[in-house]
């Protein structure tokens, strides 16, 4: 008798139990109201009710995963793909053929095309642009005027992504237009997702017209960027060239629509996420001057009197820990969804084919089961001797698996550099009508962070 023949067979998904239904649902509406009114608090409390729980959103059942280990299992399991209402509404506005929403062979091919632009050994080539943009931001902050952190953060995020990845002199003026268009589009997109009142958004109201104009300008800008690069006849070694030269599964050039959607699919996640994180970093430097001082001292110890440089970043361990800790408490991407391709299992529960699964990096990264003093801002928890105690997948702001953000190194480098450049020059204070409470949108960011920079 072999060992295999006595081992009990793995349970079939059909024999597994159904996850418990979360409490507090309202007849007819289920948990929808709670999710609209207080999404962060609601998601953060779900783990008390189980590792996997069912939510009712009107007539629909959605499965919420609440433990770090299961979010990892979900992200790494090919039984789950990118799909569901969040992705459908993104596709409707931004295009269906980009890497962020594709699945299967097309997604794998697209990842192969874009990945080289984000390789760790390529990032230093972007160093001079990141330095220039980080110092330009610090310079603008010192104008004596109140700093509107929303527009400044968008500006620097879009300019870095556009100048590094789609490089060209023409980018400067376009990067400004892009940042204005993207900020408006993201605001409107979230409204359209949480209140899917289709016909209402077609009415000729000022807000709708502003949104339509911004969306049209975003698509027009991308067309202009592509057309101009083609007309120049130049092929610099960058992401845009990689996209223009990409071949499909049959070895044929990819279509115009896919090129367009790919540029949109890289610029849009690349700007809102970074911009939101920069806003939180500015807020953290304001709220925790002791850490701002430590960042400044660290920069001084590494760079002396000269301005901090890209090459210094890997030596700025406390600065880096400040960035990681800000991302833990305020992850730009606070909710993620997947759809089950087939009937499958998660945490010992049956998940039916076609089910939508949701999880919240915000809830996971603030869970007291994973972190001592989980709500305290404590960058030193990322010192190697303490970081080893953090459970696996309890800190994955860039996700894991085949959908992992391609830009983790690119993003961390610019975020640390910006933090260092700003903290080494200024002490920051909020002005009286600033509002740094959390605004829940496609990403999390402060409602309206307004700062004054004071010379150190
Ligand atoms: C995907 C986070 C910056 C491009 C993702 C995902 C996360 C994420 C969590 C995975 C989504 C999922 O699992 O469903 C972040 C954060 C950023 C950041 C926190 C900065 C603080 C960027 C930047 C770019 C970028 C700068 C490009 C310039 C993308 C793309 C995908 C993606 C193209 C889709 C990948 C795929 O589906 O294969 N990002 N991101 N991200 N991100 Fe980022």
TrEMBL record:
Its cofactor is heme. It comes from the Bacteria. Heme binds at residue 405. One of its GO terms (molecular function) is oxidoreductase activity, acting on paired donors, with incorporation or reduction of molecular oxygen. Keywords: Heme, Iron, Metal-binding, Monooxygenase, Oxidoreductase. Residues 1-22 are annotated as: Disordered. Belongs to the cytochrome P450 family. This is Cytochrome P450. It comes from Streptomyces liliifuscus.
């Amino acid at each position: 008798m072999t060992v295999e023949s006595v081992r009990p067979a793995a349970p079939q998904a059909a024999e597994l139990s159904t996850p418990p239904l979360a409490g507090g649902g309202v007849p007819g509406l289920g948990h929808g109201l709670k999710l609209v009114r207080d999404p962060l608090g609601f998601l953060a409390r779900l783990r008390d009710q189980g590792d996997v729980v069912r939510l009712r959103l009107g007539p629909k059942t959605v499965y919420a995963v609440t433990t770090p280990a299961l979010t990892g299992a979900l992200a790494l399991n090919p039984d789950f793909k990118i799909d569901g209402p969040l992705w459908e509404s993104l596709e409707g506005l931004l295009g269906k053929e980009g890497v962020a929403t594709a699945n299967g062979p097309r997604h794998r091919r697209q990842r192969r095309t874009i990945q080289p632009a984000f390789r760790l050994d390529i990032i230093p080539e972007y160093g001079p642009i990141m330095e220039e943009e980080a110092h330009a931001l610090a310079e603008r902050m010192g104008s004596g005027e109140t700093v509107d952190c929303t527009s400044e953060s968008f500006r620097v995020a879009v300019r870095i992504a556009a100048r590094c990845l789609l490089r060209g002199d023409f980018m400067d003026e376009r990067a400004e237009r892009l940042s204005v268009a993207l900020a408006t589009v993201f605001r409107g997109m979230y409204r359209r997702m949480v209140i899917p009142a289709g016909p209402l958004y077609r009415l000729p109201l000022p807000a709708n017209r502003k949104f339509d104009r911004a969306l049209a300008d975003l698509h027009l800008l991308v067309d202009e960027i592509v057309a101009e690069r083609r007309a120049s006849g130049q092929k610099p070694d960058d992401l845009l060239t990689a996209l223009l030269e990409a071949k499909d599964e049959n070895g044929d050039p990819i279509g115009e629509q896919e090129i367009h959607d790919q540029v949109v699919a890289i610029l849009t996640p690349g700007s809102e996420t970074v911009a939101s994180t920069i806003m939180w970093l500015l807020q953290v430097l304001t709220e925790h001057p002791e850490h701002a001082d430590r960042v400044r001292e660290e920069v001084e110890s590494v760079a002396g009197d000269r301005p901090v440089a890209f090459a210094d970043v890997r030596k700025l361990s406390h600065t880096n820990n400040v960035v990681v800790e800000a991302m833990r408490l305020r992850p730009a991407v606070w909710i993620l969804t997947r759809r089950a391709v087939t009937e499958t299992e998660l945490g010992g529960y049956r998940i039916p084919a076609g089910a939508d699964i949701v999880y919240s990096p915000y809830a996971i990264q603030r869970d007291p089961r994973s972190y001592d003093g989980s709500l305290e801002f404590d960058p030193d928890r990322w010192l190697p001797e303490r970081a080893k105690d953090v459970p696996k997948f309890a800190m994955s702001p860039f996700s894991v698996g085949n959908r992992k953000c391609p830009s983790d190194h690119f993003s961390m480098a610019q975020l640390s550099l910006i933090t260092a450049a700003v903290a080494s020059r200024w002490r920051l204070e909020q002005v009286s009508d600033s509002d740094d409470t959390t605004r829940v949108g496609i990403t999390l960011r402060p409602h309206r962070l307004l700062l004054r920079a004071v010379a150190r």
